[in-house]
Amino acid sequence: MWKIGSPVFVLMFFALTFTPGAYALSMGFSDQDYLGGASWGTMTIEALDSDTLVVRYDAAPDSVIPAGSQMRGFGFDFDVLPSTVGNPGNDNFIGDRDDLDWIALNNLNAIPNPANGDEFSPGITKNDYTFGVTEGNANNFSGSGILPGEFDLFYLDFAGVDLEAIDLEDFVNSAGIRLQSLPDDINGGSLFLAGNGNDLGTTPTPEPGTLFLLGTGLIGVAAFRRRVKG
Fewer beta carbons below 10 Å: N end or C end of the chain? Predict the structure, then answer.
């Protein structure tokens, strides 16, 4: 029988705590041409459960990007296409935009070529995006959007995919954002930017069960050390 203070238990703690599913994927949307390398915002993607991803976009403040600009849609390329797009219930997240209704973009022709495509080698084009999400209009990018300094979230459901057991950096091949209501001197007032690979990364996001394992494992380490000293 394994006891809390045994070396076997400590090894089990490390094996259970550091799992592939306990990570969030983050990427920025830097813009050398119009922002001098600063980012319009940050996208974070993580597994909400075994078949649902939650996508959060945080727009940069209006001290960095033009006041009044709006982020109105997304383009993605996943290994498997989502089955549905969902929105969190009102008041589920403090400070997000409950009035925004994210839905699937049926007309992928509405996705333009990324304006920062020349920053990638090989280049990224509109044809690299296989799934779109927009606010309130399945045929185009229109309606309201995420303003400077704001954030919002939506869910992507993938039937039959165990998202907690995969590497998100491999599963999400690319992501882009549609920016509108910009000053006319910024690409005629509209931009589609691809996520900057230099800003791509994963960060640990422990779940409650993982935190319990962490605490229990540390207790086991302490008990084992006390017994060895005694």
Answer: N
Q: What is the pTM of this model?
A: 0.78
Those residues whose C-beta lies under 8 Å from the C-beta of residue 28, and which sit 6 or more positions away, are 39, 41, 42, 43, 195, 196, 199
Residue 65 CB contacts under 8 Å (≥ 6 apart), including other chains: 35, 38, 40, 41, 59, 148
194 and 166 fall within a common domain: yes
Q: Indicate if 230 and 170 belong to the same structural domain.
A: no
SS3 138: coil
Give the total residue count for the chain: 230
The residue type of 164 is E
151-169 tens-digit pLDDT: 999 999 999 899 988 889 8
Q: How many distinct structural domains can be found in the chain?
A: 2
Instruction: Judge if 53 and 13 occupy the same domain.
Output: no
Query: Is 120 in the same domain as 102?
Result: yes
Residue 190 domain boundaries:
23-205
